[in-house]
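Record filed here:
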Amino acid sequence: MIAYPDIDPIAVSLGPIAIHWYGLMYLIGFVSAYYLGVYRAKRSDGLWTSEQVSDMIFYGAMGVILGGRLGYILFYQFPSFLDNPLMLFRIWEGGMSFHGGLLGVIFAMWMFARKTKKHTIDILDFVAPFVPIGLGLGRLGNFIGGELWGKPTDVSWAMIFPGDPLQLMRHPSQLYQFALEGVALFAILWFFSQKQKPRYCVSGMFLLFYGIFRILVEFVREPDPQLGYIAFGWLTQGQILSTPMVLLGVGLLIVGYKLQRYPQK
């Protein structure tokens, strides 16, 4: 067993204002995406400008926050929402959904595409390699906050999380997700997109590998207590929501390489 590094979840405290590590990770993720986007824009042969990257990150941030919160309520707290719709606005209680955030970003990029006259998929293909940075940092935030831990286990790297009422040795599944959804997914997408790929393909790779990684980690992650297992004693809500991502990712790759269309100025 490895001792859990009990880190204060509050990164900075200024009087009544407390900045949690989870929120700080979001901020670092957006800033990193901006600078990587500017780096790629300068090498896009005029397809992108730094100003467009800045606007895109703003739209994306709004999509992540609003979509993530709404998705969490609809996917994981829907019965409670029906009893008390105002819980949607109780953001201080926490609760964000990746799949909701993804839908929020897609909608935000559609809005951005209308503003810039770009193809929505071209925007999503451009931004996809930057997304794993925020995903990985978010999982580190979960780990520091001692939340969303894994199932009980006796592996040598198991940890006991202070907030676990049962105080069991568990998989540090947040770190697994950091490694897969953050580091591995970033490496795959960054190198895959180094040379221009047909439209749909980078987005397809993102959906395919995120879906695969999330489905795998769900096998060792504790299911949400209000939902438990959806079926078969092992199927989780995260796996249900991620399976269409894998199928859609494969579909986008097939369509992309079949059509062989590329972004245009």
Remarks:
- The chain has a mean pLDDT of 92.
